[in-house]
Design a protein that fits this description.
Elements: H1 13-32, H2 37-48, H3 54-64, H4 71-94, H5 102-105, H6 137-150, E1 155-156, E2 162-164, H7 165-168, E3 201-203, H8 209-217, E4 222-231, E5 243-253, H9 258-273, E6 279-286, E7 289-298, E8 307-308, E9 311-312, E10 321-330, H10 332-338, E11 346-353, H11 354-362, H12 368-371, H13 375-378
Helix pairs in contact: 1-4, 2-4, 3-4, 6-11
The structure holds phenylalanine (PHE).
Phenylalanine binds next to strand 10 and strand 11.
Length: 382
């Protein structure tokens, strides 16, 4: 038997309680019976229609009919019931699938309806747009570098930022206690002394450990790029940050030569900085490459002249060249750590600082700006 709003004979709190209880029980029962959109509309109208809806009726039969001294109490109850009814009707709606707005559903039908039910989903309204953030300039630069190498057929590998001594140093041909380790001011994880040295944890100082991790799991040919975050114990200033980013590369195959290294990197620099840049290699040292080199690119700010008008060019320190990366042929000792046969394979590796490249590309004069989190600065790069 469907619920009808009774006239109240008594307006005492007890009588009101009882009436409200009955009403709410029916509300609950009817809500549970809602199975589809048509049901829901009937349900909504029965309880909320302005004319003859249950809410209108309790207003008329309970509140308006209440004697003066009971009005406050009854008003409060009626308000509570209104809130309960509204919430229940709203909730019942989420359980049913809502058909598209009639105006849309009936496009091309005999007589398109123009009235859109407020309860229906109107897909013609603009959506709630979330403001889009901007890609961080360093990440953006890393993506650009990676995509240059992806276009050459390289795949992407990543590795842990918290690394073991073995991967960060030993397998890269830095023997324990070797002074070459001093060139990379390392941040060590505390309380590792009880472990054998090779298992002790540190924050990786370069992305090179991922060379080893990759060669351990992959047989040649290998062509990979490794973007990632690295740490060194450098005090922060305009050009140093204890946290920075590198993009590493590794190619190992049969018969890879220094010419392949030069050609690949020359191409990459032209793709990144424009086809007119020149590259130049100078001898250097890294324990895991032999021979090793530093690659310079002609300064794309002053065009290699060392001057900007009558001013000295600062980014290249007036030399016309900018040091951009370290590289070399993979040292045969490294192959010994990953079970590659140095008689059968050869390869090259390189590593560049992505933050430094971003600084040069965007003409930023302080690396700290990248990491301070000032949105006014960062959103300029979107
Ligand atoms: N890992 C070196 C550094 O961070 C750079 C490098 C990578 C050099 C690969 C040679 C080959 O300084």
């Amino acid at each position: 038997m469907a619920y009808t709003v009774p006239k109240l004979k008594s307006f005492t709190p007890a009588a009101l309680d009882k009436a409200a209880e009955k009403l709410l029980a029916s509300l609950k029962l009817e809500a549970a019976a809602v199975k589809n959109e048509a049901d829901w509309k009937v349900f909504r109208d029965r309880w909320m229609a302005r004319k003859n809806g249950v809410l209108t009726e309790i207003n008329d039969l309970w509140l308006k009919a209440a004697p003066k001294e009971a009005k406050r109490e009854v008003g409060q109850r009626v308000n509570e019931l209104k809130a309960a009814v509204t919430a229940t009707v709203e909730k019942a709606r989420t359980g049913v699938t809502i058909a598209p707005a009639p105006a849309v559903a009936k496009v091309g039908a005999v007589r398109p309806s123009v009235s859109v039910e407020p309860a229906a989903l109107d897909i013609t309204l603009p959506g709630n747009r979330r403001p889009l953030g901007a890609e961080h300039p360093v990440i953006k630069t890393m993506h650009e570098i990676v995509s240059v190498f992806r276009n050459l057929g390289y795949s992407v590998e990543e590795g842990p930022v918290i690394e073991t001594d073995y991967y960060n140093f030993e397998a890269l041909n830095f023997p324990p206690n070797h002074p070459a380790r001093d060139t990379q001011d390392t941040l060590f994880i505390a309380r590792q002394e009880s472990k054998p040295q090779r298992d002790r944890l540190l924050l990786r100082t370069h992305t090179s450990p991922v060379q080893i991790r990759t060669m351990e799991k992959m047989k040649p040919p290998v062509r990979i790029v490794i973007p990632g975050k690295v740490h060194r114990n450098d005090p922060p200033d305009a050009s140093h940050s204890p946290m920075f980013h590198q993009v590493e590369g590794l190619a190992v195959d049969a018969n890879i030569t220094f010419c392949d290294l030069k050609g690949t990197l020359d191409h990459a620099m032209k793709a990144l900085f424009g086809s007119s840049v020149k590259t130049s290699f100078r001898p250097s040292f890294f324990p895991f490459t032999e021979p090793s080199a530093e690659m310079m690119v002609s300064c794309f700010i002053c065009g290699g002249s060392g001057k900007r008008g009558s001013e000295p060019c600062r980014p290249c320190k007036q030399t016309g060249w900018i040091e951009i990366l370290g590289c070399g042929m993979v040292d045969p000792n490294v192959y010994g750590f990953v079970d590659y046969d140095p008689k059968k394979v050869s390869g090259f590796a390189f590593g560049m600082g992505a933050d430094r490249i971003a600084i040069l590309k965007y003409g930023v004069d302080d690396i700290q700006l990248f990491f301070n989190g000032d949105v006014r600065f960062l959103e300029q790069f979107g």
